[in-house]
Design a protein that fits this description.
Layout (H helix, E strand, L loop, with lengths): L1 H32 L3 H34 L3
Helix pairs in contact: 1-2
Length: 73
């Protein structure tokens, strides 16, 4: 049960990572096409998305490292 839950959580994190990356790319594209306040807001939201991307990636990397360490040689 624990292994299955861990697998589902990891799948969810990968989906979240992709969604945040797509959101960040969309926000950057929107900011590039517009000037002014809206572009600044879009860039700020893209920066916030990058923070989440980094956090999720760090969790996934630490989980993968623990899994590899737990495997017998």
């Amino acid at each position: 049960l624990l292994a299955e839950q861990t697998k589902k959580i990891e799948e969810t994190l990968w989906v979240s990572l992709r969604m945040f990356e797509e959101r960040k790319n969309l926000l950057i594209t929107m900011a590039a096409k517009k000037n002014g306040i809206n572009s600044k807001s879009a860039l700020q939201r893209a920066e916030q998305s990058q923070i989440h991307i980094d956090r999720i990636r760090k969790m996934l990397q630490s989980d993968n490292m623990e899994t590899k360490d737990d495997m017998p040689v």
